[in-house]
Specification:
The structure is a single chain. The protein is α+β, with helices and mostly antiparallel strands. The chain has 2 domains: 30-93 and 227-401, Rossmann fold, CATH 3.40.50; 95-225, Galactose-binding domain-like (Jelly Rolls, Sandwich). It has helices spanning 3-25, 31-40, 52-60, 71-74, 77-90, 249-259, 270-273, 280-297, 325-338, 346-350, 356-361, 374-403; strands at 45-46, 63-69, 96-99, 113-116, 121-123, 140-143, 149-155, 158-165, 171-176, 179-185, 191-197, 203-210, 216-224, 229-235, 263-267, 302-306, 312-315, 318-321, 342-344. The longest helix has 30 residues, at 374-403. The N and C termini lie far apart (97 Å).
Length: 410
């Protein structure tokens, strides 16, 4: 090898090493810096006019919001941020609907607490299976022997327990702070049952204890105040939107109508995007059916579809953009628009395709490149809240302008 060629190779090697060192020394973006950039970035809420009925109810009275979704919802970090901001501005309406007991790992609510003894069987999750009779939250718990307890701790002005009335159903005792209040028999024609109670001011521990061997099936509790906002987390780990179609439509419609939501949030897409059984045509049809079913159950409610966040999946040793994420987002946007629903493009709000890298680098997303950390979900909730309030203020301004008397010509 000549000295000239050796000099070229050594120089190139030095440049490669220097470039690598430069890349290694590049400072990682910090969470505060990323947050600053995102708060200053354009919004991603589309067809916001579909939210006008929701904005009107925010302006005039108490509001219930049902938020359906997958694991991004179930942890309550993302919905919890929206709940905190909305209740700070419009008043705390209480926890609203909460699943009975603690039906599966990963489910939580920051504004209430539930527990259950070991004899309850969960139905509705991917792990536990379902017979479709899951009600408004898509999950229920059932006990078939006496002495099983499920508790709920919260503060509210009005309490309702949602349970199933069914042939051969068992009896249970309802107690408050350890004091028996009522005996309930669930034997009867198949359909929804409700226990209502007006607690004294302050937090309370409500409990159900089975008294017989007949099946007792609980859907959840509603804990409401007379005024303010409830933001009700109805997420299921691993869920896809089509799960909604497996729930008994009549029972779901009855429960939703009883909640009378002003807004229904539909937040799925990640599990569809990484599914090996993805079928774009079938998903488009099913997503229309889902929105139609929810619309029929709550005709006066606005519907907000939240798309999936940016994510990668691991193939062998490489992280790659989700194979069908573009298709999922495109279908959701199109169907939402055609169904007169608002759409929030979560991936675009994060920074677009590939932005999950930056979120992981900033410590806001987990190293699986799919789920966010608590701080990341909270940031996403705050970003969405800002956009909702921007359009809310515009709606209110337009309403006031329309109501203002015309000035007489001088």
């Amino acid at each position: 090898m000549s000295g000239h060629i050796r000099w070229i190779l050594v120089t190139l090697a030095g440049l490669v090493l220097a470039f690598g060192a430069t890349r290694r020394r590049a400072p990682a973006i910090t969470a505060p810096e990323l947050e600053r950039r995102l708060h200053a970035a354009p919004g991603a809420l589309e067809n916001a006019g579909a939210l006008v009925p929701f904005f009107e109810r925010l302006r005039t009275g108490s509001v219930h919001i049902l938020h359906y979704g997958d694991s991004h919802t179930a942890s309550d970090d993302f919905p919890g941020a929206l709940r905190r901001e909305l209740q700070a501005r419009f008043g705390g309406g209480g926890p609203g609907f909460t699943l009975a007991g603690h039906p599966y790992l990963g489910y939580r609510r920051f504004d209430s607490r539930g527990s259950q003894s070991g004899g309850w069987r969960t139905s509705g999750t991917l792990m536990h299976g379902s017979d479709g009779m899951e009600g408004v939250g898509g999950v229920s718990i059932t006990a078939q022997r006496s002495g099983e307890a499920a508790t709920f701790t919260a503060e509210c002005e009005h309490l309702t327990l949602f349970y199933l009335q069914q042939p051969g159903g068992g009896d249970f005792e309802f107690s408050v702070d350890g004091e028996p209040v009522r005996l309930v028999a669930t034997n009867g024609a198949l359909g929804p049952g409700y226990l209502e109670y007006e607690p004294a001011p302050g937090p309370h521990r409500f409990a159900v204890r089975t008294l017989t061997g007949g099946a007792v099936r609980l859907f959840g509790w509603t804990a409401d105040n007379t005024d303010g906002v409830t933001y009700e987390t109805l997420g299921i780990n691993g869920a896809q939107a089509t799960m909604v179609l497996s729930w008994a439509e009549e029972l779901l419609a009855e429960h939703i109508a009883r909640r009378d939501p002003a807004l229904i949030v539909v937040a799925y897409g990640t599990n569809e995007a990484i599914s090996p059984r993805w079928d774009a045509a079938a998903y488009s049809v099913a997503f229309r059916q889902i929105l139609e079913r929810l619309r029929n159950a709550a005709p006066s409610a606005s519907i907000l579809v939240i798309g999936p966040p940016d994510c990668f999946f691991v193939k062998q040793t490489h992280r790659m953009s989700s194979a069908h994420l573009n298709e999922v987002i495109a279908i959701q946007r199109a169907v939402a628009r055609e169904s007169h629903c608002a759409y929030w493009n979560w991936r675009r709000r994060m920074g677009g395709p590939g932005s999950v890298r930056t979120w992981v680098q900033a410590g806001l997303s987990q190293p699986d490149y799919v789920h966010m950390r608590s701080a990341g979900y909270r940031l996403a909730g705050e970003l969405l809240f800002e956009e909702l309030m921007f359009h809310y203020e515009r709606s209110i301004a337009a309403h006031k302008a329309a109501d203002a008397p015309e000035e007489n010509d001088q």
